[in-house]
Amino acid sequence: DPKNLQQELQAVQAELKELRSLRWLACADLQQEVYRHLAEYVPRVLCQGGGVAEQREEQREELALQLLLLAPLEWLLLGGEPAAGLALLQQGGGAAALCGHVFKVGEPTYSCRECAADPTCVLCMQCFLASAHCHHRYRMTTSGGGGFCDCGDAEAWKTGPSCQNHTPANRNRETEEVRLLLARF
């Protein structure tokens, strides 16, 4: 009966996820543990050869692929329990830190004479008007097309690299969270 089979597979899946979660939460080096796990299970799951085309066998293969191969990759990419890692990523999903606006031919560009690292460092009109640079000495030119707005690029500015639109709401908290996530790798 396909309905009973589906329920059975879901129960097994939940039990295996719980066991894996406990093991991975307790491990000292998540990356090495996931690599070891994948080295063991990728050949078992993907190199079984001539599988039976029955629904039950296909569902077992799909379950094995999800539990034994994809779930460990979720742990590795998110640096821990997947639900917590996704929630952390969603919290930091505010405005982009870089503008990246591509200038069209004839579009105005603004360069701060006081803060630009060099004369090629420019802002689009929206970023310029939302920045401290609009109160400084500046140079306005028209673009030849194809350049990018340098708002948010700390290397392009001596001070004030981001306008109000591209400054994260809580830069210190977000930077610390990213540092903690990356430290796990």
TrEMBL record:
Enzyme Commission numbers on file: 2.3.2.27
Zinc finger (UBR-type): 97-168
Alphabetical keyword list: Metal-binding, Transferase, Ubl conjugation pathway, Zinc, Zinc-finger
InterPro entries assigned to the protein according to its UniProt record, in alphabetical order: UBR1-like, Znf_UBR
UniProt cross-references to PROSITE patterns, sorted A to Z: ZF_UBR (PS51157)
Biological pathway: Protein modification; protein ubiquitination
Molecular function GO terms recorded: ubiquitin protein ligase activity; zinc ion binding
Catalytic activity: S-ubiquitinyl-[E2 ubiquitin-conjugating enzyme]-L-cysteine + [acceptor protein]-L-lysine = [E2 ubiquitin-conjugating enzyme]-L-cysteine + N(6)-ubiquitinyl-[acceptor protein]-L-lysine
Domain UBR-type, residue spans: 97-168
GO terms classed as biological process: protein ubiquitination; ubiquitin-dependent protein catabolic process via the N-end rule pathway
Highest rank taxon of the organism: Eukaryota
First-level EC class: transferase
GO CC aspect terms: cytoplasm; ubiquitin ligase complex
Protein function: Ubiquitin ligase protein which is a component of the N-end rule pathway. Recognizes and binds to proteins bearing specific N-terminal residues that are destabilizing according to the N-end rule, leading to their ubiquitination and subsequent degradation.
Family listed: Belongs to the E3 ubiquitin-protein ligase UBR1-like family.
PANTHER family, alphabetized: E3 UBIQUITIN-PROTEIN LIGASE UBR2, UBIQUITIN LIGASE E3 ALPHA-RELATED
Name of the featured protein: E3 ubiquitin-protein ligase
